[in-house]
Amino acid sequence: MLFSGATFLYVFLPIVLLLYALAPGVKCKNYVLLIASLVFYFFGEPIYVLLLIFSSISDWLHSIYIEKHRGDKKAKIALISSIVINLGMLGFFKYTDFLIGTVNSIFGTSIPKTGVPLPIGISFFTFQTMSYTIDVYRGRAHAQRDLGTMATFVCLFPQLIAGPIVRYVDVAAELEDRKITLENVALGVRRFAFGLGKKVLIANVMGELTQIFRDSTDKSVLFYWLYALAYALQIYFDFSGYSDMAIGLGAMFGFKFPENFNYPYISKSITEFWRRWHMTLGSWFRDYVYIPMGGNRTTKLKWLRNIAVVWILTGAWHGAEWNFVLWGVMFGVLLIIEKLWLGRILEKLPSFVSHIYVLFLVVISFTVFNAAGLKGVVSDIGGLFGAGNLPLISSEAVYYLRSYAVPIIVAIIGATPIPKILYNKLSEGPKVALEPIATAALIIVSTAFIINGSFNPFLYFRF
Amino acid sequence: MKKIKYILTVASFALVIFGLAIAHLIVPDKAVSSSERRELAQAPSVTAKAVFNREFSDKLESYMLDQFPMRESFRQVNAATRFYAMGQLDSNGIWIDGDRVYKNEPVTNENQIAYAYKLYNAIIDSYLKDCHVYWSIIPDKSYYAEDKNHPHIDYDRLIELMTSNVNGKYIDITGTLDTSKYYRTDTHWLQPELFDTVKALGEGMGVGEYLTDKREYTPHTLSPFYGVYLGQAALPIKPDELTYLTSPYTEGAKVSYMSNSGVMEESSEGVYTLSKFEGMDGYDVFLGGTQSIIEIVNEDAKTDRELYVFRDSFGSSFVPLFTGAYKKITVIDLRYVTSQYLPNFVEFTPDSDVLFINSTIVLNTAMIMR
Known about the structure:
The complex is a heterodimer of chains A (463) and B (370).
Chain A: H1 6-22, H2 25-44, H3 49-68, H4 73-107, H5 122-138, H6 147-155, H7 157-160, H8 168-176, H9 182-215, H10 221-252, H11 270-276, H12 279-290, H13 300-318, H14 322-348, H15 351-369, H16 373-384, H17 395-403, H18 405-414, H19 418-425, H20 428-451
Chain B: H1 2-26, E1 32-33, E2 38-39, H2 48-52, H3 55-66, H4 71-85, E3 94-97, E4 100-103, H5 110-127, E5 132-138, H6 155-163, E6 169-170, H7 195-204, E7 218-225, H8 228-233, E8 240-246, H9 248-252, E9 254-258, E10 264-266, E11 293-297, E12 306-311, H10 315-318, E13 328-332, H11 342-345, E14 353-359, H12 360-363
Parallel strand pairs in B: 5-6, 5-14, 12-13, 12-14
Antiparallel strand pairs in B: 1-2, 3-4, 7-8, 9-10, 9-11, 11-13
């Protein structure tokens, strides 16, 4: 079930909101959320919902055991067991066929692939549950004794399948007791509506353009750049729109989820970009991989190794294909270069040069990201630079540049804090009318686009 | 002040979400969308199998979208936002010039076109060696559009590929048409505007002198006719009227359609199946719409000649205008009958005329022909 689908917006959500409002007390509200979350996941993954339940029970038992034996070797064994189970699930469902394919292509073997489909959101919920048991082991969180509450955390539908990656410690207090205020609900509603608009009115429209490019037989250098720009905008508005909807829904239910994006495209360095892009994933790798390996408080060689490991893992986390690994490696190399010497130079350069540097590399990186394997990377990156005697301009490229000029300009401006800054300059008076009207208008226009049945996938579902 | 804002924001959200959800429950479901010319999804039945193979969730989403309250209005909001707010030049490939609706055809499929001329030649070699073979190409409406900036088939390339490969006499009809000779909201051409085209084809095949004069026809108009592009455009554009022409020859023609069992069955309605106007596609009035093989016999025709027409849906509206010139016309649509089985259903009489005539849209997707 997609947040931007009619079934979610006009069947699931009204029923859940109504039941949630009627449910007395936090415990009862948690059960409403748990059942709703299981139904939500069941709709997309009728079989794999068992995996989610298994994951909840497994980490619930492990965490209790870890807490009971804190400081003991048994706690460490339980932690390793929990991590092995979580990574085992992730590895089996996500990487088995990738490894088989790689072995086959290197050694010329023909080992049959399993063909097992990837459970939606597995990369997100396994990371959430792993962080929980690790935090219990480290003593940063108490083990949750109530299985229902634990399962509510693991299965919580607003962030279940595409983040933000919510750690148990982020919501532990709210799972036990939370206040649902008018202000939070209103801010949640506003955030949800804006997220929906970002997803449906911008990301999907950019998605149409990328699909048109893929289907075209009239490619040119201009068309490749138009595609690369459109995809960079699509993935930002798709993912940040989803995060906004998740955060908004969380607020409606009384939770405060962590922010996931902070205008990444205004960054002046790749280091800054990754402080602003998919922030919950970045901080997860920092806290559970990079720092435990020694972070930067070690020898230079080990420090570089730590960065390399984190970015290979970040790339592979995004997808079981070599282009994703390459994408991660690319950022790892860029970050190392920036940390060693380029960062200091970037600080001295005029802002617009730093911005161009970041945007150029980010657009290239997402072209790598969206390519069909390594062959696709060579073809798409080659296309950007005119490889294969590609014409500079084609009539189709000019047509679609004209046709999508306004949405692209709106998207570019929308990717900056300019609209927010302008809005904040307004006095409270106009906002009283503007916010409710904008909220309703965004939902209505988004619904109009959804009904027209255009392009509507969520890119991050596959991760 | 902030509290009022919060109350209004939550209220507006609740009004939209709950209001439309309740309206969806209350408003009776519809069977068809006349503007989109398609059946609408109905509420799916809940079975364990459907739930577990995700068919239920997929069908539920389709049902929600198809039966959404004020669906037409929402579709108009979408189209208007795209055209007027986003400044897009098309909406899902549909674009408008004045009150005429066109469709982008961005890809020229040379392999499909090659399939078309190879198929034509294979049929000619197999069955038509003793016949007079003619062929023509019907340009789609965009060929004549003033605005050439929209992506369209490379017509010159298509015509070049066909003319240099098809074995037969090419009859060029491109000069007989313009945008005014097509429906504003549909892909097809207007029957009352086809006299120049029919004349070019008739003269090309040597029956020009036997064609029925324009003045002998009586026009009959059916309204409203929702063209295929109208529903896709989802903008408040006036629908077309559908006019068909009758003459003593069209009235006197006996029409038989091939049934699903492969038997020719005579129709009681003749060359115009008026009962089909209220159906999904009003254009089906012409020769009963989708048909694999049709035989039109006119004992009062001015000649004893026979004509075989290999055609697509454009053929349905111009073939009736040849009923005065040919005693028997056999109309074949290769999208619905496989060419290798033709001898089972059609006996090709030597010395007859044969006309291959398909639109550029069909030639560009020729693998739908068999």
